[in-house]
Amino acid sequence: MRSPSAVLLSLFVLCACSSEPNPSSKPAGKPGGAPAARVKVAVARSGSLDAKVRFFGNVESALSTPIAAALAGTVDAVSVREGDSVAKGAVMLQLDARRTRADVRVAEALSKRSTAQLQQARRQADRVGKSSAALSAPERERYQLDVAVLEAQLAGEQAAAQRVRVDLSHHRIEAPFAGVVKSRMVNPGAWVKAGDTVIELISTEELQVLVDVPFDSGRELQVGAPAVIFSGTFQTDAVIAGVVPALDVTTRSMRLRVELVKDAVPPKWLVPGLAVDVELNLTLSGAGVLLPRDALIRGAVGTRVVKVVDGIGQPTPVELLGATADEVLVKGEGLVAGDSVMTRGNERYRPGTQVIVE
Predict the structure, then answer these.
(1) How does DSSP classify residue 295?
(2) Which of 11, 168, 184, 272 could form a cystine bridge with 61, CB 3.0-4.6 A?
(3) Over the chain, what is the mean pLDDT?
(4) Cβ neighbours of residue 330 closer than 8 Å, sequence gap 6 or more
(5) 3-state DSSP call for residue 93?
(6) Distances (CA, A) of 60 to 120, 172, 208, 256
(7) pLDDT of residue 220
(8) Which DSSP symbol is given to 339?
């Protein structure tokens, strides 16, 4: 049996051991607070970024038009329906042309009559001119006047005949370009007035994408610069075909026209009316600071970085201006070149916690 003095000595040793610090414990933060967070940081810097930036665009048909009747008449036949492909010059609609054909025959007959009368007047004027009988000046002028009047009459009748032939051609509505019928507004038997839209035709081969970009980006872009059109997992190469050198008065943005590369066949997924992303190559500078891509934290409420000031992290909302595989160009209130920004441990950082920079 152990003596009372031995028991007291054992208790004293246990108490002394329990008061020694545990070498495996985490670094302490503020007294009574969470332990300090171990993080890695990078220094924000100024400079330019050669980035691929995406902008929103809309696909449109470069050739798209409502086709109207050039004159009034009854629809005799319609040879196309919605979705039909037509070649350039194909007849899509015909108006009743019986009355106009009759007008053509009348105009041609009048022209023939005047032609015969003019030929006779010229022969008579030639005979009088060759006759040995002396004619007075008024008599010679009368023969010459007959010829001039008939020449003017024939010219007017020939012009009228040509106008009627043009009217006859307008009874056949032909496709002005190869395309697809978007809509058909009339059926056989309908009466149309001059100017009434009868068919809408769009081209699916000549497509363009209209893109609005900020002025700072648009002024650097030139015709012929490469671009890529994206829609989900689909993409196709393109080029900038036109730059409008003016700003929209509401958005202060510039408009670009992007087209497929020369001789490229439009992919089936690229159709008029589709909303797409257009990726452009830009050199961005002066608008923000450069950071490693790992510094970004994307969340439901926006994008942010965590700046380290006096050993404490300060979450800072930022606007992403451009990005590459390794770097980003961001702009945020109070974020300047030389600031330390977390690149590791930033996603788990709790605001107000002290940090230990590794």
Answers:
(1) G
(2) 272
(3) 85
(4) 288, 289, 291, 296, 303, 305, 318, 319, 320, 321
(5) strand
(6) 62, 28, 5, 13
(7) 79
(8) -
Residues 219/254, Cβ–Cβ less than 8 Å = yes
For residue 113 the two structure tokens come to 């009559």
Last residue of a domain, one of 248, 283, 318: 283
The total domain count for the chain is: 4
**In this structure, are residues 278 and 228 in contact, taking their beta carbons and an 8 Å threshold?**
yes
Domain that holds residue 227: 53-62+204-283
Closest by CA to 49, choosing from 337, 335, 289, 304, is: 289
Residue 338's domain is classified under what CATH number?
2.40.420.20
For the chain, percent helix, then strand, then coil, each to nearest 5?
Answer: 25, 40, 35
Do residues 180 and 91 both lie within one domain? Answer: yes
Asked if 174 contacts 90 with a C-beta cutoff of 8 angstroms, the reply is yes
Asked whether residue 25 is assigned to any structural domain, the reply reads no
Do 208 and 275 lie in a common domain? Answer: yes
| Among 144, 206, 149, CA closest to 179 | 206
pLDDT tens digit string along 106-140?
999 999 999 999 999 888 888 877 765 666 777 77
Phi and psi, residue 13, nearest 5° = -65, -40
| Residue 20 resides in a domain | no
pTM tops 0.70: no
CA dist list (Å): 164 to 77, 79, 157, 159, 161? 21, 24, 11, 9, 5
Q: Is residue 3 part of a domain?
A: no
**Within a domain: residue 15?**
no
- Looking at residue 210, which CATH number applies to its domain? 2.40.30.170
Contact 167, 99 (CB under 8 A): no
CB burial of 44-69 (b: ≥16 within 10 Å; e: otherwise) equals beeeebebebebebebbbebbbebeb
d(CA 249, CA 261): 31
Find residue 234's DSSP bridge partners. 231
C-alpha angle with apex 226: 220 to 227, nearest 5 degrees? 95
Does 302 lie in the same domain as 238? Answer: no
Q: Which spans in 42-136 are helix H?
A: 98-130
